[in-house]
From TrEMBL:
This is Putative pre-mRNA-splicing factor ATP-dependent RNA helicase DHX32. It holds the Pfam family OB_NTP_bind. Residues 1-34 are annotated as: Disordered. Keywords: Acetylation, ATP-binding, Helicase, Hydrolase, Mitochondrion, Nucleotide-binding, Nucleus. The gene is DHX32. Its EC number is 3.6.4.13. InterPro entries: DEAD-box_helicase_OB_fold (IPR011709), HA2_WH (IPR048333), Helicase-assoc_dom (IPR007502), Helicase_ATP-bd (IPR014001), P-loop_NTPase (IPR027417). Residues 78-244 form the Helicase ATP-binding domain. It is found in: Mitochondrion; Nucleus. It catalyses: ATP + H2O = ADP + phosphate + H(+). Belongs to the DEAD box helicase family. DEAH subfamily. It comes from Chinchilla lanigera (Long-tailed chinchilla). It is an enzyme of class 3 (hydrolase). PROSITE patterns: HELICASE_ATP_BIND_1.
Amino acid sequence: LSSLLDKMEEELECPNSSSERRYFPESLDSSDGEEEGVLTCEDLELNPFDGLPYSSRYYKLLKEREDLPVWKEKYSFMENLLQNQIVIVSGDAKCGKSSQVPQWCAEYCLSIHYQHGGVICTQVHKQTAVQLALRVADEMDVNIGHEVGYMIPFENCCTSETILRYCTDDMLQREMMSNPFLGSYGVIILDDIHERSIATDVLLGLLKDVLLARPELKLIINSSPLLISKLSSYYGNVPLIEVKNKHPVEVVYLSGAQKDSFESILRLIFEIHHSGEKGDIVVFLACEQDIERAYEIVCQEGSNVNSDLGELVVFPLYPQEKCTLFKSIDDTEKGCHVYQRRVVLTTSSGESLIWSNTVRFVIDVGVERRKVYNPRIRAKSLIMQPISQSQAEIRKQILGSSTSGKLFCLYTEEFASKDMRPLKPAEMQEANLTSMVLFMKRIDIAGLGHCDFMNRPAPESLMQALEDLDYLAALDNDGNLSEFGIIMSEFPLDPQLSKSILASCEFDCVDEMLTIAAMVTAPNCFSHLPRGAEEAALTCWKTFLHPEGDHFTLINIYKAYQDITLNLTSEHCVEKWCQDYFLNYSALRMADVIRAELLEIIKRIELPYAEPAFGSEENNLNIKKALLSGYFMQIARDVDGSGNYLMLTHKQVAQLHPLSSYSITKKMPEWVLFHQFSISENNYIRITSAISPQLFMQLVPQYYFSNLPPSESKDILQQVMDHLSPISTMKQEQTMCEKCPETTEQRCVIQ
């Protein structure tokens, strides 16, 4: 204690010290009849997690925590945690369950001296995981990255001694590949259950078996009230902690607004601003295109608003980008003496990203654009449909609990009761399951392959996933993971992309393939363009174009970013360079992080790594071979010479995206390999590179080619194969015989 007091004296003498911690509570700043600043050993209350005295901020935050609705249930929760293996906590958004329950679990683990491990809490969104970790570390008065940390894809802010970890659900799922029974943890908390992500649903099923194998393990499930009945029937008779959180919200249904919802939104924003009522506005739109459109209009019209009413500041919130919630927004008020009303434009994905207590108005369009995967054609469809009643309730709960708020629904009560489903659809029933099936095959090695899902996926989706893994050589003839499949599962990527990386080891282009994988995994590297900047942006982007296609253009962009990063010492200068070239700085920085982790995996599993040779004709060909090895199921042909591309696997016609290098240069190749395709009003294929039919036929699995539906494109490819050298044809037939001794139809039945 004397050494600790010496340290405190040093920091008090050096107010500019790097440590921001104050080691005494506010109540001890002065004492009755005693000299100021004199502390005794008895005055110091030590933090049991790090052994240091609590700071004054801890006591301030403790008062705020005690005002949270969930705090009243602490005793009940701790009692149930001691006596039961599973506890369900039901509460609305902003009741405090995501921040307080993990801290109580950490106290429980501390009380038993961490003999069964620490605490881990899952989140669906990586932004939420980071922000919760920062908030909880602050409330516990400990250091982020030490006692409290977070794990999100391609970023780990934890140590071996971290007590409480926040992570995305897919990160905990991946941890089960190396640690199937999660022996490092004594308490597992599944949060955001109502989001129904694939990883959360898989964890719910797998943890049933883990709990049986580890009776000492505790499982806490945080859920919205609407999902409680389904969870109770799924897990049986388990304790339920219900958190009451009633706050006044005025709901206004605008019956005529549904026909012209966009105009109604804009009108409402300015009516609220002109009313003079204080508070920020959150607007839920159907899709990101609506965000961009609304942002331009509100910014333009907002500049003409009377300055006496205050400034109208608009924030587009794109959930796929690593935005810091309201941190950057709150910074705008610092040093600003003019009232600012903030307008946040977002979609359904942003429901759990709104944390500000200053929101007083929510505008809800009541519909969303969802991506629904069709296994028959191996493509996603963008479908406009009503949100669920549970989503509508969450949007209502975003309004601050301290004072009344207003929710403007651009739909009728009848629409809400009849057209809206009670619960949000499970992602497992609408998504491509290939990655999930690869994970389940990997887990089967540990005996956890039989998973009891809350909502079983469609058999057709499972069959398509198995078929794709078979085409990618991830399965052996018995339907188990092959050596290829085991290595593919080590990469936190789509299986097709993992296969391309493995193929690049054979074709001596690993360096280039890792760059492509990082760039397509990170958010879009091109910035959102303000109106009128399109021509200037295209001029800048032309400097990066590569004649071989978009995958090669991405390599050029990344290499240019790397060169600038090495030449410019200031991070601000690099960010300025990105702005000048209309590139997304945070996306490129994320691509750098992703690439570093992929390279680390390559080295860890000791795969061959050739020196980069980007730019040579041989290297260009090798990159295409590696891409084709993984993406042979995503090929299209220009059927009329005017840019109408017909998919090889189905009869959908699409066009190249306007930002494709071929669209910019007006040179349309006949055959292309593409990375993304969604069926919508604009059927665009994105990230494309030209290939030759000869190269395709040399690399495509023959049993996949034989299963393609009849088409003119298939006939052309058949003619190409007939003209290939007898040696290569014989090799293909031999591969087909070794891989597929039965007919394809029989193989599907066996699997």
